[in-house]
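4.2 Preliminary Data

To establish feasibility before requesting continued support, the project team ran the inverse folding procedure on a target of 516 residues. The structure was first converted into the token representation described in Section 3, and no sequence information of any kind was made available to the design step. The complete token record follows.
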């Protein structure tokens, strides 16, 4: 028999009060960047209805025709000429909602001339799709973002009215959360201008191929995004989150200004956005924590191992640090719930209790049929248990695995040479950290380590561990850890040892930009 007392966790909005709309654990760092760029290209960090916490309603082009050519075109390889392919392609897609009426291939013939040229162009563009494309439905596949015109969301097969809706398979709103965070910064307009300079025009040859394919039929129909993401109200009074917004904007602007091709820039951009979102989640949790041990100094802390084959004290401590960070948000959520529910239990007057419950847990929870009558009972122990279970289940479905999965997506954690995950940034993440942090030809290693600690809470050395007042029991091992980090940075070609016997981290792309 079904449990009639089972509470729908969606009516409980405590998680949203702490972190805002969900940070989706299944959204990779690259997809987060794509969603961020899509929204940034549609809305200029605009504020709707004077609400800085809420994302504006927006829509954007589906590029349905381009995507059909690339991903729903099974006869391309077996067709012998334009006429053979044109007939089969029309038969395959003419009943699909949104497909151009009375379609013909004259525009493609004019753009590409010989059919083999067209086929080769499609092959080139397909080679730039996501590596897991063979496992994805065609409406969920995407191209590399050479320009704004190659960034598009998922679409449902059938439109609602004249527009398509986004099923949120790829765009799970984590990119929207990054956009909202960046909008808190006073430098948001500078960021917008740099994004436009980099992504607005299709300058890359592959982007020009997309333009040629779409030239006759355009990028429509539109995709609508009716639901809105939002930040919690607490960010308005939390100076650490304001700092996080400033750091995010500052890092993205620094990356966008480098003398790097877009195809080389997308990876560090996505990793840095993912890193800031990991920090955002932890900072919101620490700000909301009641227990001083969970609150700490409200800053994130990641003890990083410079990877080696042998086990070490730093590795063991880093693995424990990772587990603590994974559990932090759950503990803070349950702690906040317990504190609020304790207050409810102390109120003997039923009407006052119901009103206070509405204030602390929201109208949706207070009006829920699984809660509304039970809050009036003398014994609230069963209600407490059921609400706790509902909160945990909801957290597991939404944000509970975000730290674990995003840290893997960006290369912050690894299981290499060990059974459990620990913080050991990979080469690609380390490169992204250098590119976003070193704002001159070179920077002393000690300054670089201090800056990545202050920006992200990343700790490799004893000095930063002392500043965080953490990891004192592995202080001696951190000296060897720093030496291994030197070797890792050197292997990337990003370290110079100058005549003053000091090690310097270099950013060759910043230097190249100055020379040009």
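Position-by-position output of the design step:
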């Amino acid at each position: 028999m079904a449990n009639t007392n089972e509470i729908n966790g969606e009516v409980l909005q405590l998680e949203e009060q702490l972190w805002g709309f969900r940070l989706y654990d299944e959204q990779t760092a690259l997809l987060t960047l794509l969603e961020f760029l899509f929204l940034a290209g549609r809305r200029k960090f605009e504020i709707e209805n004077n609400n800085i916490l809420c994302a504006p309603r927006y829509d954007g082009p589906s590029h349905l025709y381009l995507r059909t050519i690339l991903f729903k075109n099974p006869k391309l390889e077996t067709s012998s000429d334009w006429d053979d392919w044109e007939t089969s392609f029309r038969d395959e897609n003419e009943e699909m909602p949104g497909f151009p009426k009375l379609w013909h291939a004259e525009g493609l013939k004019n753009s590409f001339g010989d059919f083999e040229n067209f086929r080769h162009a499609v092959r080139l563009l397909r080679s730039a799709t996501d590596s897991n494309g063979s496992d994805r439905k065609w409406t969920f596949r995407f191209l590399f973002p050479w320009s704004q015109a190659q960034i598009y969301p998922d679409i449902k097969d059938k439109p609602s009215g004249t527009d398509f809706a986004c099923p949120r398979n790829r765009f799970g709103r984590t990119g929207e959360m990054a956009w909202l965070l960046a909008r808190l910064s006073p430098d948001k307009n500078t960021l917008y201008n740099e994004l436009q300079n980099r992504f607005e025009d299709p300058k890359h040859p592959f982007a020009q191929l997309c333009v040629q394919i779409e030239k006759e039929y355009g990028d429509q129909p539109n995709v609508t995004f009716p639901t809105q993401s939002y930040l919690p109200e607490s960010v308005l009074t939390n100076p650490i989150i304001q700092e996080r917004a400033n750091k995010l904007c500052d890092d993205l602007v620094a990356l966008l200004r480098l003398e790097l091709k877009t195809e080389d820039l997308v990876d560090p951009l996505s990793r840095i956005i993912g890193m800031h979102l990991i920090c955002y989640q932890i900072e919101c949790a620490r700000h909301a924590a009641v227990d001083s041990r969970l609150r700490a100094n409200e800053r994130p802390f990641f003890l990083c191992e410079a990877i080696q084959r042998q086990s070490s004290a730093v590795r063991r401590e880093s693995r424990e640090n990772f587990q603590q960070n994974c559990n932090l948000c759950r503990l803070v959520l349950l702690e906040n719930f317990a504190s609020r529910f304790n207050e409810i239990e102390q109120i003997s007057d039923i009407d006052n209790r119901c009103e206070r419950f509405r204030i602390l847990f929201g109208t949706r929870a207070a009006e829920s049929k699984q809660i509304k009558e039970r809050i009036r009972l003398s014994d609230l122990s069963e209600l407490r248990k059921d609400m706790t279970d509902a909160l945990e289940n909801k957290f597991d479905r939404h944000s509970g695995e975000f730290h674990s999965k995003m840290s893997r997506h960006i290369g912050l954690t690894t299981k290499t040479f060990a059974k459990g995950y620990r913080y050991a940034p990979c080469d690609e993440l380390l490169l992204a950290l250098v590119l976003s942090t070193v704002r001159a030809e070179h920077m002393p290693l000690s300054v670089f380590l201090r800056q990545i600690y202050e920006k992200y809470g990343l700790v490799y050395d004893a000095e930063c561990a002392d500043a965080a007042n953490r990891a004192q029991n592995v202080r001696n091992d951190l000296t060897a850890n720093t030496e291994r980090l030197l070797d890792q940075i050197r292997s990337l070609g990003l370290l110079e040892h100058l005549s003053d016997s000091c090690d310097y981290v270099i950013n060759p792309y910043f230097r190249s930009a100055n020379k040009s």
